[in-house]
Amino acid sequence: MKHVHSHLWPGVPLALVSAVLFGASAPFAKLLLGEMSPQLLAGLLYLGAGIGLAAVHGGRAVLGVPAPEAPLRRHDLPWLVAVVLFGGLAGPLLLMLGLSHTSAASGSLLLNLEGLATMLIAWVVFRENVDRRLLLGAFAILAGAAALSWNGAGVHLDVGAALITTACLAWGIDNNLTRKLSSADPVVTASIKGLAAGSVNVVLALLLGAAVPPVTVIGAAAVVGFLGVGVSLVLFMLALRHLGAARTGAYFSLAPFIGAVIAVLLLHEPVTMQVVLAGLLMGVGLWLHLAEWHEHEHTHEVMEHEHVHIHDEHHQHHHDGIVMEPHAHRHRHEPLKHSHPHYPDLHHQHGHA
After folding, report:
1. Global pTM?
2. Is the pLDDT of residue 51 over 90?
């Protein structure tokens, strides 16, 4: 069957919408910070994501809406535990500890290291392919994010900076390990991560003496968390299937600029040279990524796995009877050699000379 759709679809739109939702949550979370401690807010955001996605999953079952996604299996458990520990527990806790020992401006600048950590781990450890154009585009996006958070004072290398850097490393590991779970139902995975991380952070915040905000504020935090953390994470995981960790992480690094634009539009914050410079740098980086054209003859080795799919050029297997598409089941890929534009997705994790 001939390859008939753009290699940009649907991975790039999924990653960009994920970044939009996460970036949009930042100015709203900033408004809520005046009502509660940072750690309690982080916990409520994750809890809102977990509870909201659990409700979506339960609602599908009650309404009888079929979910074609593959379920989590026993062999996914180690990856799920690692993702919750690194991304849901260690990352937020290290960030909160770090912010208590350094300035907010320095912490904001250091948070850009998450995108760098994600890309470096994907390229060095998991051997995702990268060329000069892609590398330049990724660093243009990161430079834009750094420019956006620069306050002229630089980064203070203290205990707080070390803790925030470690938090970014934890999230970089989380983003790459999440790829191992991207073939399973992202709603279930993100719900588990949100519930675990949210519960721990809320309990820790309350034990440290955080005051409980009004119910209306808790509800607002839950809604922001559901959209900005939960739905964003689901879309991020879907993008991982099609783009790999490095490219998804690069697109997601656009989130700070999106948050800044929304702050200008909704909160009437001033348009500064930092915002303009960040927009130019990120625009260049985005164009370099969108213009990527990676095509060569490649060989698919024999592989068995489970994920949602249709019977396209990579999925030519037999079913007994009529089946609806898309659907999910364990299937076997026979050896295949062909050429078409592709990303390092679930089916294109081959090496390059």
Report:
1. 0.84
2. yes
